[in-house]
């Protein structure tokens, strides 16, 4: 800023000379000094930067400008997204970025495959209508820890999960069982997954039949057929796994539980939900329908 430059150089040159060379008035410089050395805009920027820094820290350092802007708007702070982006750049703050995930799918060619009931239509009119599921891996000092999740398409909420040292059918069955017990969906809820052998096994088919869950399976080797769950895992990787290392399985389990329940489901703003968290988006749906 010009007045700040004059202030820094006034011990070496007369203020009137500096003002004339820089094309401003001497009176303007002294008015700036009386205001405390900052313009109103600069003072507002400093206040906003403090708020932005707090929001970014609360997001565990993961939010970029769109989600920071949404948090500020929810708190009643009126500011443009471009200004938020500029102040974040100036403060050296940035969101994290996703990378591509390696697939763990191992298809059983002899298995009877259910039909694809989703067809890449990743929308749902209400909670507990369509669930998607997948498995990822977490490296630790004790070897791989596998995480299976069940995601409700309506609000992108993780409604079931399971962790184990082996990638077998009980891993995905436990995740589905958790979702069934906590959500108690109506008969006919769709469970969509890839062609992994865990999801096409007889044991898993029996579990789905017992609870009247309709199985759905995408095509082989195509991540787009299960894009929403893949997107969650990409978020998990760039916002937790790429930034943390685990010595033991127990450390990883605790961190994953905290990320899913303490942050992702309840606090993290999701663009598909109009920048509401999965919990808040689902709560709005329930409140509206209970009031109707």
TrEMBL record:
Q: Which is a GO BP term held by this UniProt record?
A: DNA integration
Any one GO MF annotation of this record: nucleic acid binding
Q: Where is the Integrase catalytic domain?
A: 123-286
**Which InterPro entries has this protein been placed in?**
HTH-like_dom, Integrase_cat-core, RNaseH-like_sf, RNaseH_sf, Transpos_IS3, Transposase_IS3/IS150/IS904
Question: What are the boundaries of the region Disordered?
Answer: 273-292
Function (record text): Involved in the transposition of the insertion sequence.
What name does this protein carry?
Transposase
Organism equals Frankia canadensis
Lineage, highest ranks first: Bacteria, Bacillati, Actinomycetota, Actinomycetes, Frankiales
């Amino acid at each position: 800023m010009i007045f700040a430059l004059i202030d820094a150089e006034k011990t070496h040159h007369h203020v009137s000379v500096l003002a004339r060379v820089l094309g401003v008035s001497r009176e303007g410089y002294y008015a700036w000094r009386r205001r405390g050395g900052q313009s109103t805009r600069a003072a507002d920027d400093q206040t906003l930067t403090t708020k932005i820094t707090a929001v970014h820290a609360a997001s565990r350092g993961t939010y970029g400008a769109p989600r920071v802007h949404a948090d500020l708007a929810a708190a009643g702070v009126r500011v443009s997204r471009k200004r938020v982006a500029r102040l974040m750049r100036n403060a050296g703050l940035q969101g994290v970025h996703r990378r591509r995930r390696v697939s763990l799918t191992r298809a059983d060619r002899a298995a009877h495959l259910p039909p694809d009931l989703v067809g890449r239509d990743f929308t749902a009119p209400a909670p507990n209508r369509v669930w998607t599921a997948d498995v990822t891996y977490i490296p630790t000092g004790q070897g791989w820890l596998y995480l299976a999740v069940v995601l409700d398409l309506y609000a992108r909420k993780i409604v079931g999960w399971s962790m184990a040292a082996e990638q077998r059918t009980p891993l995905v069955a436990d995740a589905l069982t958790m979702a069934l017990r906590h959500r108690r969906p109506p008969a006919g809820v769709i469970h969509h997954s890839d062609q992994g052998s865990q999801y096409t096994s007889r044991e898993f088919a029996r579990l789905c039949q017992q609870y009247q869950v309709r199985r759905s399976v995408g095509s082989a080797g195509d991540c787009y057929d299960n894009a929403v769950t893949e997107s969650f895992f990409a978020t998990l990787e760039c916002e937790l796994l790429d930034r943390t290392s685990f010595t033991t399985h127990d450390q990883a389990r605790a961190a994953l539980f905290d990320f899913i329940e303490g942050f992702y489901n309840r606090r993290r703003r999701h663009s598909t939900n109009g920048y509401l968290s999965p919990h808040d988006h689902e709560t709005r749906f329930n409140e509206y329908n209970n009031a109707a």
